[in-house]
Design brief:
This protein has one domain: Rossmann fold, CATH 3.40.50. It is 39% helix and 27% strand. It has a 7-stranded mixed sheet with strand order 3-2-1-4-5-7-6, with helices on both faces. Helix 5 links the parallel strand 4 and strand 5. This is Phospholipid methyltransferase.
Length: 162
Amino acid sequence: MPSSSFMVREITDLVAKSNPATVVEFGAGTGVITRELDNYCQENQAKLLTFEKDDKLRDYLKEQFPHLPIFSDALYLPKVLDEQGLTQVDCIVCGLPFTLFPQELREQLFDIIYSTLSEDGALVMYQFSWHMRKALKQRFGSVELNFIPLNIPPAFVYYCKK
């Protein structure tokens, strides 16, 4: 189910708070958040790199956003950054279902996220439970948690800084 306008607004407000030159989106799905990130990036001359692993959703995103680079797997972020001539990103928006992943994959993804974020970079991560809070607090110096009840299902949006 696509994200509600309340959650999309919360996410884009948090992205804007980090004033990014480069934004990465993991788990773009149907592109509801992608659309607002794209608008933000175009208005602020920022670069947006979008990742979606599902082939059908990725094809749909490529049709909806032909001007955006859409990549297949978040694990490829370091390689993609190298190909794009980038070393780090300022903001990562992540909607991947971390609680469903094996611990090893979670650790891999957290390592990639943390290592590719700039020193002032931010992770904006939305989940449908608060269970990732402890893992995020172990990695990031600052973790804010916002509850979005007007979303189906209700969501938690984390704002994490190194």
